[in-house]
Design brief:
By secondary structure, the protein is mainly alpha-helical. The protein contains nine helices and no strands.
Length: 186
Amino acid sequence: MTVQRADARRNYARILAVAEEEVAAHGADASLEQIARTAGVGSATVRRHFPSRGALLEAVFSERIEALCARAAELTGAADARAALLDWLGALTTYAASARGMADALTRDGMADPEHVNACSTRLTEAADPLLREAARAGAVSRDVTVADLVTLVTGIALATEHHPDPATEAHRLLGLTVAGISPRS
């Protein structure tokens, strides 16, 4: 196991803190050069810690993704599979609409490099798949709906509402319209 030097750990933490601010302000296309300048390091140092934009975005959104995965685990096995899935979709919508750049980061799956696996999307898929399977078994959602479909719908909603005066409220309103279409109440 390689132990990172103290200055390297400090640089990583400083770069990540600045990246979180820059992504919040400018979205997923925040300038890596600006992040380096603001963090007081060279661009090579940023790239050494984060070899790709995807790796940087994954680190920026890691805590949010972990919270969504934990929520999916809590909801798995709930008595009302439809309500559990909708609860999780609501949490995903809240996060995607409130964390500028997150929706864009989730849509980058395989766009630049077909070999690249978007770790955030993969973790969300693995966490939410049991919820979706339970909802499908309960007849609350079509069996051909995938977690990727649901993430795509939510990210599309978040991107569409990004410049709305109240993005989270508008995103939830649009999610409600979407849910009525994909899983109407019996």
